[in-house]
UniProtKB/TrEMBL annotation:
Protein name per its UniProtKB record: Unannotated protein
Gene Ontology MF terms in the entry: coenzyme A diphosphatase activity; metal ion binding
Organism name: freshwater metagenome
Domain called Nudix hydrolase: residue spans: 82-217
Cofactor(s) needed by this chain: Mg(2+); Mn(2+)
Region described as Disordered: 1-39
Amino acid sequence: MTIEPTASPFPGHEFPQRLPLVDRREPGGPSPWKSRNSREWSSLTAEQIALRLRHHVVDTAKNGHVVNDEVEAYQRDGGETIRQSAVLLCLFDSEDGVQIVLTRRAAHLQHHRQEVAFPGGRCEQLETPTQTAVREANEEVGIAPEALTTIGHLTPIVTMASNSSIYPVVAIHAGEPAFSIDPNEVERVFSVPLSHLFREESFVEERWWRDSRRPASPDGSFPIYFFKVPGDLVWGATARILTEFLEVISREV
């Protein structure tokens, strides 16, 4: 049955959102960075992260039509038009190291209600993913566009529930952001140090089996990632993006 907060699959960790029904779930593997030398990335500054992202090249064609295989499979097999959206991975330096900004979506929204997400939303006509991510972050939580410096992009993905492609944009904010929430979109905004996300006890991978269109492995399963953060749980598309981001910046150089 649907997992309730009091029946969390992570003992001692509660969260306000519900996880979906799945046919079968099993433990997955360790984090991609578990076997890496933590001295390489445990105390990275935002500037050092920017340097590492330079080597991670993702085609973010300005017209938004070049995306990954998953998006192309949806368009080819389903004959559907995938709506384009973008999210902002906003980083800033602090006494606790580099932190990343997250939100909890409002409870009344149609899709992904009360789930943890990055600021972001649908692309307007003729708008690039970067322009969308910056605009939406300003509208949702008051992040000032002039305080941002874009430093890279991650692999676009698709969400099943909202039939959208998501283009992740990574940017550095000059100093700690001053937030101003739009309650129509966001219930909570907070930041988490990357050092917390890198802890082995924060990361969980599961293998799920579910009747869905998502590309799967030969046994029919697909990976689902989770991050346990104070007072909440990151999973789904946001956790997939976050996993790629942490994997990239933790690579040995």
